[in-house]
C-alpha cells in the first residue's frame, strides 16, 4: 500500500478498508475459504511509516518500493499517492507482475491513463480504480430509483459539491497544499471530474459533452509548513454536461463555498414523473402526484413549505463504507476472477472528462466526449 501515510491512504484505505476487513476475519470466497489481506505499508518517510504502523498494529512497512515489488508474496500493488506520481509507480508494479488497484484520477493526463490501462491488459494482471461514490448509500438509492423508472423521462440533473477549505494557517486547511498547485497535479477539474464521469455514466446516463468554466478564486494559501504559496490550480469549476437522451446535467464543484445543504454532495434529478435529491447517505423523493402547485407571488409570504413535500426514500440494503465495499469486490476479483467493471479503462474515462473540461474552459466552448481509445 503506497502513499498510505496520506489522508485517503490512512483513513479510507488502511483503517476503514483493509484493517476493517482483517478485523471481520477476512473476506469469504465462494469455495468457503477466506482472504485476509496482509498490508505492507510503503512510503517515503520512515518516521511517518513507523508511526502509522505502530498506531494501527501493522507489522510491516518499507521505504523501498522496488524491493517490495520484487517480493513474489505481494500480489497487489495499491496506490494512494499524490496524483502526479501515481502512473509511474503503477507502471513499475505492472512490470513486476502485480495486480494493481489505485486511487482516482489514475493519472494526470489521458495519455498516461491509457498507457497504464494498456500495459495492465497486455500483462494480464487484474486492475481497478477507486470509484467510491458509486458505493455511497445515497447514490445507490438514486441508481435504484433510475432502474425502477421512478423518474419517468429524466430531464435534468443539478449537483452541488463543495465546502469551504480554509486557507491556513488557522484553522488548518482540510486538504493538502498540492491540491492547489497545478504543477503538482492539483486542481478541482482533475480531482472531481474523475468522479463526475463514473457517477453520471453509471447512475444517470452516459456523458456526451461538457462545457466547463473554472476559476482560481483564492490566489494564496498557506502550506503544511506554514509558508504562503501561490495557488496555480483552479479551486472551483462550473460545468454543464449533455447526457445520452438529451438529459442536461449542471454540476458546481467548489472548495470556496459555504454549505447551506444537508450534505457535502447533493444531486437533484428531475423527471417527468418525479424528482429526487440524493446526498452521500440520504435520498428524498417527490412524486408527480405530491408536487405542490407553486405560484410566483413575491408580495405575500410564501404559503407553501416546499421541503414538506419531499419524503425519505429508504431502500433496503447493507451500506458498508464505500471504499471498503469496492475493496472487497476487488479482492474477490483478484482471488476468483469474474467481472470488475471499475478498471483502469474506466479510470481513464474520468481522466478524459477532466482533460476535456479543462480544454473546454480554455477554449470557451462545449466539447463532445469521444469514444475512449482502447
Ligand atoms: N476517492 C476519493 O474520494 C478521493 C478523495 C481525496 C483524494 N483522492 C485521491 O487520493 C490521492 C491522495 O490524496 P490525499 O488527499 O490523500 O493526499 P495526501 O497529500 O494526504 O497524501 C499523498 C500521499 O502521497 C505521498 N507522496 C508520494 N510522493 C509524493 C509527492 N511527490 N508529492 C506529494 N505526496 C507524495 C505522500 O507522502 C502521501 O502519503 C490523490 O490522487 C487524490 O486525487 C481521492
Report on the architecture of this protein.
The structure is a single chain. This protein is of the alpha+beta class and 374 residues long. Helices cover 33% and strands 21% of the residues. The strands form 5 sheets. The protein has a 9-stranded mixed β-sheet. A 3-stranded parallel β-sheet has the order 5-6-7. Strand 5, helix 4 and strand 6 form a beta-alpha-beta unit. Helix 1 packs across helix 8 and helix 6 runs parallel beside helix 7. The longest helix is centred in the C-terminal third of the chain and has 20 residues. The model has no long low-confidence stretch (mean pLDDT 97). The site of nicotinamide-adenine-dinucleotide has 20 residues, from helix 1.
Helix content: 25-40%
Number of helices: 9
Main β-sheet, in a few words? Answer: 9 strands, mixed
Shape: globular
> Helices and strands: which structural class?
alpha+beta
Primary descriptors:
about 375 residues, alpha+beta, 9-stranded mixed beta sheet, 3-stranded parallel beta sheet, globular, binds nicotinamide-adenine-dinucleotide
